[in-house]
Amino acid sequence: MAKTTTRYVCQDCGTWHPKWGGKCEGCGAWNRLVEEQVESKRSTTRPSPVEFVGISGETPLAPRKLTNISEFDRVCGGGVVPGSVLLVGGDPGIGKSTLLLQVVAALARQVPCAYISGEEAIAQIRLRAQRLGVEGGSQLHLASATNVKDILNALDQFGNIELVVIDSIQTMVTDTIESAPGTVSQVRTCAQELIIAAKKRNTVVVLVGHVTKEGVLAGPRVLEHMVDTVLYFEGESNYQYRILRSVKNRYGATDEIGVFEMTDRGLSEVSNPSALFLNDHNQDVSGSAIFAGIEGTRPILTEIQALVAPTYLASPRRTAVGWDAGRLSMILAVLEARCGLIFGNKDVYLNVAGGLKVTEPAADLAVAAALVSALVNVPIPSQSVFFGEIGLAGEVRPVAQAENRLKEAAKLGFLRAYCALPSQQKATRGKEGIESVYVMKYLIELLDLLPKLPHNKAKSIER
Ligand code: TYD
Ligand code: MG
Q1: Residue 97 Cβ < 6 Å to ligand 1
Q2: Class at the top of the CATH hierarchy for domain 276-459
Q3: What is the pTM of this model?
Q4: Tens digits of per-residue pLDDT, 305-350?
Q5: Which residues are within 5 Å of ligand 2 (an ion), measured at CB?
């Protein structure tokens, strides 16, 4: 007979505790334990033999489905794989429902699809669809429901639905367990049932999950290991663009991004994001350097801005927006120790323009260039891009995909590139259109760039 037990589950990390406590043993979070009832059942399944097979063999691959929203398709690794489960996470209001309604409507032009909302009524979804100008035709089926069992029954009745969007997983409930919607156990069990159904029916299931900073709803982080693909939809509320980023993908590369712009008619694809981020770049001010970056497989040029101002504080300020603060301190230390520049009596602010977050170490050189330019108040020669990682010895290290970076810079009309290239790579590769590629070995060579610097003095410190 089934026995009901009580357990306390952390809503952040999902760790179970037999007793209530203020602090989660698993992740250290406070006040996140919630009481949940579980029915423990004895295993009644009989052992079944496991069959081993060789690694090479015939497995018919179902073709991927292209939604024809190419930014979305690329992030998925070239379309969605039948039978796979995607999790699309993001802050509330970022545009997840808008994106997926557009995706589902686009795919419904080819195959039957369903959009199931646990948050909005049919009238609301229709209104939104009207505003977006999407029409799914007769193959797009809408429903407003929250019970997983009912939803699976409905899908079974239809039989031929190839993609279903569940918006959102936190609103779903299942009868098999007895905790409130949105709790970790409920979210996990609902997701499990949907995943099993997806594999069995060979349907694509897209789960929408809210991530909140306060963690009011159980974070979809507990689902990340269960699904095939995890996409995060991010953006700054002050900016119109949104980035869809793949952080896990069993069927494609990660770190891939898709860029969208939120307009009054929904999300529109941005096929040339560099142009968007360099939109109002002013070339004649000091402290601005263009970084030729790569996000996934796609090059993106971004502007790095620095401001260096005299400080009145005992310990000067170091503020970085869109860039790691620890990395900023490291680059400042290298500039001081290896290039003889002094930032100790200055406040330093660094900003990645446009609200983008840059995580690549390849941006080091652009950061250093912006800092040096801000320090001496001399603009960097116009039409220049930078990329290269900086080492503690003051060396500039080559980074991956130099060719793609140079190509993108050339495409956008840049004439000069300052970078490190692997020794075996000829400086000429990928440089068509770029007038001069300065191959750098040491950071100190950067000082030659800006005429006002007493770089000879600085150089003598180095040698
Ligand atoms: P939504 O998709 O509901 O966000 P989520 O599902 O992630 O919570 O997006 C809501 C926001 O998008 C809302 O603040 C308004 C904005 N929006 C537009 O700017 N244009 C549009 O055409 C639509 C539909 C929404
Ligand atoms: Mg929504």
Answers
A1: yes
A2: alpha beta
A3: 0.78
A4: 999 999 988 899 999 999 999 999 999 999 999 999 999 999 999 9
A5: 97
